[in-house]
């Protein structure tokens, strides 16, 4: 049968390129889980996706009510869930002050991590029911969260610390809006959120893979220096970053190429896996072993989200 894949943030960039690449195989029905219906419809048309190959369902990851509503709508649709791709993200490298989700969490960690965490937890039951041979839950990670890569060593570095900010609600009221309790830094908040994404997949795999057969992974798509992710950056950065990645670091990939990598990866074909970083390379701060960190992370999330 045709597989069903849900992709968050499929209205642009990597999400759109992946949706297109999967739809073109004819083997997938793509559910584009997006916050802007009209933009997504236009985007799907602009890349030539055929109407019968996709559906658009509303999802705003910056609102936990919206996440629950999306899951409810998806479950009512009667479709099976074979692959969930958590791709959407926001990045505020130049923000001087934090902004917040509908539930009052710092916006980048709230969207990239907490929204996806709740979505993944709620949809686990659907993935579990799928009879698809390679059912999987994929989160798009980033090497900027790995301190053993060059990009991960560009300050500010990701660091979850003892997660006192997350445990206190990440709301900037009682304490800081940063996971580690430090001063707000938009670039670091993004990197921290990606560490949480990768860590979550690693722990989900350890906890649930054997019983459910679901493969939990995070992948790095390469540096797609032209996407909307960098829209908040200063214009000089936006001009110089693509040629820098193309000709100096040689880490650049086009949106189309990155989408094809992901499509290969989900279908277990081709060389897409070469662009996948090992999530075991994540380094946390020295005071925090990974298991202890995950336990604290779960407790902190539990105090933030009532599932
Ligand atoms: P884009 O900005 O092009 O895409 C981000 C997508 O996320 C958009 O569709 C956006 O929707 C959506 N989104 C943002 N906020 C929300 C929300 N609250 N609810 C639902 N959807 C939301 O960036 P990319 O394609 O570059 O990024 C895709 C993924 O790739 C991200 O996880 C990013 O961290 C990762 N990545 C990207 C790299 C790169 O070089 N570009 C490198 C490494 C990882 P809308 O259209 O409405 O704004």
From TrEMBL:
GO terms assigned for molecular function: protochlorophyllide reductase activity
A single Gene Ontology CC term: chloroplast
Keyword Plastid (UniProt): yes
Assigned keywords, A-Z: Chlorophyll biosynthesis, Chloroplast, NADP, Oxidoreductase, Photosynthesis, Plastid, Transit peptide
EC numbers on record: 1.3.1.33
Keyword Transmembrane: no
Cell compartments where the protein resides: Plastid, Chloroplast
Domain of life of the source: Eukaryota
GO terms classed as biological process: chlorophyll biosynthetic process; photosynthesis
Pathway this chain belongs to: Porphyrin-containing compound metabolism; chlorophyll biosynthesis
Main location: plastid
Catalytic activity as recorded in UniProt: chlorophyllide a + NADP(+) = protochlorophyllide a + NADPH + H(+)
Family: Belongs to the short-chain dehydrogenases/reductases (SDR) family. POR subfamily.
Protein role: Phototransformation of protochlorophyllide (Pchlide) to chlorophyllide (Chlide).
Protein name: NADPH-protochlorophyllide oxidoreductase
Record organism: Trapa incisa
